[in-house]
Amino acid sequence: MIRMRAGDTVWTPAGEEHWHGGTNTTCMSHIAMLEGTHDGDGTTWLESGTDEQYAAAHQHH
């Protein structure tokens, strides 16, 4: 898990599965810049995490 603060930037390499979100006391805005491909936008959107996964991720900060 990467803990980010206002103004931080994260670069994720192609093919890297990742999730992002705020906490129960903060919000998070996601602005993505991606390079399109001839057959779409090049992004595979994954399923949302469960409440249990979310809670477990925030216990390890």
Describe the structure.
- With 61 residues, the protein is low in regular secondary structure.
- The protein has one domain (1-61).
- 13% of the residues lie in helices and 0% in strands.
- It is built from one helix and no strands.
- It is globular, with a radius of gyration of 14 Å.
- The mean pLDDT is 77.
Helix content: 10-25%
How many strands? 0
Gap between N and C termini: 8 Å
β-strand amount = under 5%
* Largest β-sheet summary: none
Alpha-beta content class: little secondary structure
| Cα-based radius of gyration, to the nearest Å | 14 Å
The pLDDT mean sits at 77
Order of helices and strands: H
Question: Unreliable segments (pLDDT under 50, ≥5 consecutive)?
Answer: none
> What's the number of helices?
1
Large-scale geometry:
globular
Number of domains: 1
Topology diagram in text:
Elements: H1 51-58
List key phrases describing it:
0% strand, 1 helix, 61 residues, 13% helix, little secondary structure
Quick gist of this model?
By secondary structure, the protein is largely without helices or strands.
